[in-house]
Amino acid sequence: MAGVVMDTTERKMVEERLRQSEKMEAVGQLTGGVAHDFNNLLTVVTGALSMIARAPDRPDRVARLAEAGLQASRRGADLTSKLLAFSRRQMVRPEVVDPNRLLEEFVPLLRRAAGETVAIELDLAPDLDPARVDPGQLEATVLNLVVNARDAMPGGGRVRIETRNARLSAAELADMPEVAPAAYLQIAVGDTGTGMDETTRARAFEPFFTTKEVGKGTGLGLSQVYGFARQAGGHVRLLSAPGQGTTVEIYLPRSEERTPVRHAEDRAPPREATGGEVVLVVEDEPAVLDMAVESVRELGYGTLAARDAAEALEHLQSGERIDVLFSDVVMPGGVDGIQLAERARRLRPDLRILLTSGYSASVVGHEIPKGLPLLLKPYVREDLAAKLTLVVGESNAPKESALQVGP
């Protein structure tokens, strides 16, 4: 018995060391990939800014370098977005959507991304159930799959996008105990490409794993797909074999809610302030606070600045004019942006609220209440202008009940 216990203990220790080794290898691969891509992007940004600083009197050159820096920054934002999606920590704004309608509206962009040599076919079930997901994340997921399919068909081919309702049993999910048997809707994206061997298929969802040449892909496309599905409460299956193409099946929980009817909207373009509106900007990072205040001022708004919720509440309790509270969500001091919005609305019931964040709801500790506009970081002046136009244009602030958070 002593020998059996010793053998069992030793085997468990070996297995634990192996798991730890695999974890460290995955972390090393992840951090190495992040560092490589971000160093490339930072090289572009810092190089462009350095050259602008040395020769600010050459407008054409400044504009070209600034555009290069902005493009690199957008790629960095896309990279962090995919990382957050893989880790299921991305800030999402789920809503009830009709996946069929979303796919039909998205097809023109998919065809442009696929190119002229790739045909896009739709086979959409007319009785498809609605889903409660972030529509932007669903579009990004399908786009990632189409781009991957295009790259797997260098000589051209066909991508088929199918939807159907599916009820998965416990037996079908035996290898995925974390997924509950239930009614799902399936979105499948299949191609006629080269397919994957067993080794590649086993690693396909790993972050930064890619079979493409260096510099041709980040290896985060399928990772984003996996993260989106798991964050939405569903899962992903990958079917592929060499020479037989690849099909990725995404299963999303069906929603009991009905898809809201869309009405044509005549949205006003972003405008600068004309009524002397004042925005209280709340941000704990000094550099970000300065940038936000400067951007708001450029749009013609008056500004007040606060570095935390306590300082913001001092402004709100004074007699100063404040039309909009523009606050970061995650802040030090024990009061986050959502809780600040709740307290601010009690002090000033007609106050407009705009939140901003680069974190997920899991970091904050609760979801962003419905009815509160959210501006995701990083943002540019045009994004801020559009959100402020929306917020200032509201005739009434959201009902106080929409701001209740926590138990």
UniProtKB/TrEMBL annotation:
The modification 4-aspartylphosphate is found at residue 328. Residues 278-392 form the Response regulatory domain. Signal peptide: none annotated. The keyword Phosphoprotein applies. It is an enzyme of class 2 (transferase). Its EC number is 2.7.13.3. Residues 1-20 form the PAC domain. Residues 33-256 form the Histidine kinase domain. The keyword Phosphoprotein applies. This is histidine kinase.
